[in-house]
């Protein structure tokens, strides 16, 4: 029935199926209580309505001790999908905690692309333990996928593809589909291939259903068709899905032969992970950082970035140290100087974040980079003048010194213009040199604004006030 | 053919279709040249292979003058999909630049959900201009969608749904689909409904194809089935799609009747926008910020956040001002104090970013918040002690003062512990009060670390050194 649902007729009453929402704190408490008292039956009953993704989230949220006890008690109910939803940081521990037979059953349930995702970060011993329990055909598929580079389309794709020769008509395709026993669990398109098995177009199942039997498949192919080389980085795959609204896309090897298919749900997952990396890198946190990491892991991730920050902070202090005389003479400078640096750091971070994000979404390209640099300079100038006036007046009334007002106003303009330039320039240059701009830009930019801020303010002050 | 593609037989040769990759700088230059010389034929030829999403990107990247000339020259080739791919910031200008008839044709090509997305941000006059050119049924659909709250599932869904009563078998469903003229362009599931039109399950088209005619639809429904209330915020819809790997999900009104369906490509788009908002908000840039904004627009977005930052920077300066005496006596304090504040700000931002991201992905919940707070405190303590030792030794050698070394070491420990606490505490508290933690946390946290850093360092110094 495709008519507007509002118009249809009511016949008989039956309640709608419950939708599975995320678990509440109460649920977790009840589950942990059942673990505490060792009530396996109750545990299974409480876990039964939860989606594997939610169970994985819960396992990440409870502590390691409860997690291990829960897994032991849950035992053979443990589902393979929970494993593939788990954060890498605790996946290894969970695999070790599972009874080997439970693990084998859990892994055998998974699609080969999920198994690849599951084992690619495990150590060799765990990898072969899992590979051993797979059926031969699955093991070969997984091993073949593992030969593709990490984070490539080859790791992301599923190898089972529904395809048809391009000369088929709708009737032949439908008859073929209805006669085939081993169609994949999920597929949305038939990939049309030429005789060399090179993909030439996608036909959506819906279009197929809606068309007369004698119509040629080639007349039903979708406008947007995107073929993905097997070595393409997964981040670019996700970009293509998002940009072109793809639902599934064929993957080809170097001779352009079809070797697999990627579906949008996997691409969405990659997009989400890429965002996570960007946001964590911008903040100077290791991109592998997880909430489920323990204290030691967290310290190890954050300490290097703090060490870099310490170096740059010391650099800024060395600038200040050049002006000890004038600070000793006019202590007000020590009071005001952090304002200039802080405003510069903030303005720089603003420009930087927009630039990093625009580079990631490919909105900032060589076609518009000079115009955007011009814009950032102008914005820095305008904001600089605004805050120069405010700070000039503030300094005048606070310390009763017009000269100090002029000094801080000038330093403010200089630093905000530099902040705009550094905010756009640093990520663009890093990207040109093949460095992820999200990774290192923040430190560079705030170093620049600190050094320039202190130097401009204290330098001007010592020129004028000493 | 579902067999492994590697095994299939080669029959005849034909080249694969070109895939449409993003345009290069050269393409843009060639297009702009054709606009310069007014060569319409060449322009159309150059634009023809480009995907509407890429054309929209290009229109965003070139300047306003070139954009208008290009649109005038391209004229009636202008595709509706380009409009729906355009950033809101320039969409209005483009609509104004289009010839009314071209606009009418462009809009009529679009699905009703794309029209909604297109017009929801236009002013009333432009809205009704577009509504007027739609066919009656489309206009009613669009107007009805506009009655749902902005950023709700109701705005996101498409109203055309393929559904079937739950008592049907595969044969009935297939016969029905093949007999129906107006199936939607894209659909991947049949929604099974009870007689009150309440959705009870999804059957994937692939499953339907693979099953015998006499099998009941209800035995084919997917494990994961998620019903979305029409008023649910689109951010939560995107979360559900990503969490549960949904491909499409039925949308219901308050009486639980089916009113539409949301597909994963729209959810992916929302996920992408939500990430953009998070990252821009964290940096104190208006979340509506676009690379295509002009200078004035950009100043207006960034100035308020810089003003907030100025207030907090002045607050920190007021703390410093309390210690003018000790700074005047020991100028080394002015040199070292930014280091303490900077390290605190960085450590706070690290903890904060992980917390904001974890709240967004619902990994940080009431089940684990206390454990994570404990972790952040410990991490702050460990990092604090590490850098306290480094800075203590550095200050000792730099200024030859063991007392100064002890003072900065102590201040470092205090500030990094506070940074950890503020970094996790501020976003959690904001979230409890219903404020987007990405929006305001950064300023709060760095204010805390600046104030505490200066106060601890200078306060200890004046207690010990004066």
Automatic annotation (TrEMBL), chains A, B:
Membrane topology, as annotated: Multi-pass membrane protein
InterPro entries associated with the record: CBS_dom, CBS_dom_sf, Mg_transptr_MgtE_intracell_dom, MgtE_N_sf, MgtE_transporter, SLC41_membr_dom, SLC41_membr_dom_sf
Gene Ontology cellular-component terms listed: plasma membrane
Pfam families in the record: CBS, MgtE, MgtE_N
Key word Membrane present: yes
Keywords assigned by UniProt, alphabetized: CBS domain, Cell membrane, Magnesium, Membrane, Metal-binding, Transmembrane, Transmembrane helix, Transport
Gene3D superfamilies membership: CBS-domain (3.10.580.10), MgtE N-terminal domain-like (1.25.60.10), SLC41 divalent cation transporters, integral membrane domain (1.10.357.20)
UniProt-annotated location(s): Cell membrane; Membrane
Family: Belongs to the SLC41A transporter family.
NCBIfam families in alphabetical order: mgtE
Functional note: Acts as a magnesium transporter.
The protein, known as: Magnesium transporter MgtE
């Amino acid at each position: 029935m495709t008519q507007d649902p509002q118009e249809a007729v009511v016949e008989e009453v039956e309640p709608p199926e419950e939708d599975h929402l995320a678990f509440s704190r109460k649920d977790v408490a009840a589950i942990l209580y059942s673990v505490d008292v060792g009530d396996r039956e109750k545990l299974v009953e409480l876990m039964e309505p939860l989606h594997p993704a939610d169970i994985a989230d819960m396992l990440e949220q409870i502590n390691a001790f409860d997690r291990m006890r829960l897994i032991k008690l849950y035992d053979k109910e443990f589902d393979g999908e929970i494993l593939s939803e788990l954060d890498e940081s605790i996946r290894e521990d969970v695999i070790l905690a599972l009874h080997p037979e439970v693990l084998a059953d859990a892994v055998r349930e998974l699609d080969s692309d999920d198994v690849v995702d599951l084992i690619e970060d495990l150590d060799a011993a765990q990898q072969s333990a899992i590979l051993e329990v797979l059926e031969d055909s699955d093991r070969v598929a997984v091993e073949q996928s593992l030969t593709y580079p990490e984070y490539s389309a080859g790791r992301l794709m599923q190898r089972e593809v529904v395809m048809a020769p391009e000369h088929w008509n709708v009737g032949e395709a439908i008859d073929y589909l209805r006669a085939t026993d081993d169609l994949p669990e999920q597929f949305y398109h038939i990939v049309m291939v030429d005789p060399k098995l090179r993909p030439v177009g996608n036909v959506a199942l819906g279009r197929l259903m809606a068309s007369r039997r004698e119509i040629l498949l080639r007349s039903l192919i979708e406008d947007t068709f995107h073929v993905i080389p097997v070595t393409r980085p997964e981040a670019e795959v996700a970009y293509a899905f998002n940009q072109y609204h793809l639902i599934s896309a064929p993957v080809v090897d170097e001779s352009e032969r079809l070797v697999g298919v990627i579906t949008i749900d996997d691409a969405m997952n990659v997009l989400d992970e890429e965002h996570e990396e960007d946001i964590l890198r911008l903040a100077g946190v290791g991109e592998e950082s997880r909430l489920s990491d323990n204290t030691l892991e967290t310290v190890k991730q954050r300490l290097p970035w703090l060490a870099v920050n310490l170096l740059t902070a010391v650099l800024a202090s060395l600038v200040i140290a050049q002006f000890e005389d004038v600070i000793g003479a006019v202590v007000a400078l020590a009071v005001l100087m952090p304002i200039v640096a802080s405003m510069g750091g903030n303005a720089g971070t603003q420009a930087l974040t927009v630039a990093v994000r625009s580079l990631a979404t490919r909105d900032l390209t060589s076609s518009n980079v000079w115009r955007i640099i011009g814009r950032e300079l102008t914005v820095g100038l305008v904001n600089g003048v605004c805050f120069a006036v405010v700070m000039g007046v503030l300094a005048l009334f606070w310390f009763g010194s017009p000269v100090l007002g002029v000094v801080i106003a000038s330093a403010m303009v200089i630093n905000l213009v530099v902040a705009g330039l550094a905010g756009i320039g640093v990520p663009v240059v890093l990207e040109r040199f093949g460095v992820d701009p999200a990774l290192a830009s923040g430190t560079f930019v705030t170093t620049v604004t600190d050094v320039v801020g202190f130097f401009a303010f204290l330098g001007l002050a010592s020129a004028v006030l000493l």
